[in-house]
From TrEMBL:
It comes from Streptomyces phaeofaciens. InterPro entries: SAICAR_synt/ADE2_N, SAICAR_synth, SAICAR_synthetase_CS. GO terms for cellular component: cytoplasm. Residues 19-268 form the SAICAR synthetase/ADE2 N-terminal domain. Its EC number is 6.3.2.6. This is Phosphoribosylaminoimidazole-succinocarboxamide synthase. It is an enzyme of class 6 (ligase). One of its GO terms (molecular function) is ATP binding. The gene is purC.
Length: 299
């Protein structure tokens, strides 16, 4: 069992039709047919959307994505049309709302990995492969890979795991030409972002992108290179062979699996509310990631 502890009721806004409630975002459509994407302060862990929000998280994710879209503009176009609030939208949407192109989305999570961890590490331990790609012997948790790899996954519904798949399976689903284009774009963007982050003392361990098509043109969509969609590690604390310090919601995961939370991850009960100190520590990590990457102080 998993999903939302309590699924929120979407706001009704004149001129907008609500399309979807995701883990973090609400998706609307305006009268012109454009998508209106609103990032909430919700957070998720272990396939549950938690009952406690992280203040400023939606704005941080949105503003960091916009910064990255600018850094990547010469590699791939993005879906953003405007950051202006739609008429009638609540003031609270300011800074967390994007008006975006409606694209034909590729049904694939495009994941790039430069370091071995997470589900990639679990597969490697079993078969010395990740998504069917053979890797050298002797790698451990946190090892840098010989070269970045494209490890796609199928998109899953809220509360379900994305499933890693082979490149060949992606080619069967979307065609060889599209699969090659997705792989090339994913690795090019990862390479650019890895170098930018490294210059700022952050290792980009892995990340996932979502792409769509505007006609024949490949366009990057959703969010990009945030602590929700990426593993960012402080470079000065990197030490292969153990779990790495990270700029994400690790405080949340660690507390939920601690005796203090009293929560049984294997049981059917939803997670409990987060205590204020965990909320504050998690917010501080998101702010630190934003400030280190962009060089801009979070107001």
């Amino acid at each position: 069992m998993s999903g939302f502890v309590e699924k929120p009721e979407p706001l009704e806004v004149p001129g907008l039709v609500h399309l979807h409630t995701g883990k973090v975002r609400e998706l609307y459509q305006n009268e012109a047919g454009d998508l209106v994407m609103v990032a909430s302060d919700r957070t998720s862990a272990f396939d549950w959307v938690l009952p406690t929000e992280i203040p400023d998280k939606g704005r941080i994710l949105t503003q960091l994505s916009l910064w990255w879209f600018d850094q990547l503009a010469d590699l791939v176009p993005n879906h953003v049309l405007s950051t202006e609030l739609p008429a009638g939208a609540p003031a609270d949407w300011q800074g967390r709302t994007l008006v975006c192109k409606s694209l034909k989305m590729a049904p694939v999570e495009c994941v790039a990995r430069g370091y071995l961890t997470g589900s990639g590490l679990a597969e490697y331990r079993e078969s010395r492969t990740v998504c069917g790609l053979a890797l050298p012997e002797g790698l451990v948790d946190g090892s840098e890979l010989p070269a970045p790899i494209f490890t796609p996954a199928t998109k899953a519904a809220v509360g379900e795991h994305d499933e890693n798949v082979s490149y060949e399976e992606v080619a069967r689903q979307v065609g060889a030409e599209t699969a090659a284009q997705l792989r090339q774009a994913t690795l090019a963007i990862y390479g650019r972002a890895r170098d930018i982050a490294r210059d700022r003392g952050i290792l980009l361990a892995d990340t996932k992108f979502e792409f769509g098509y505007e006609g024949e043109t490949l366009v990057i969509a959703d969010e990009v290179l945030t602590p929700d969609s990426s593993r960012f590690w402080p470079a000065d604390q990197w030490q292969p062979g153990r779990a790495q310090a990270s700029f994400d919601k690790q405080f949340v995961r660690d507390w939920l699996t601690s005796a203090e939370s009293g929560w049984d991850r294997a049981g059917e009960q939803p997670p409990p509310p987060l205590p204020p100190n965990i909320v504050d520590a998690t917010r501080a990590k998101y702010v630190e990631a934003y400030e280190r990457l962009t060089g801009v102080t979070w107001a």
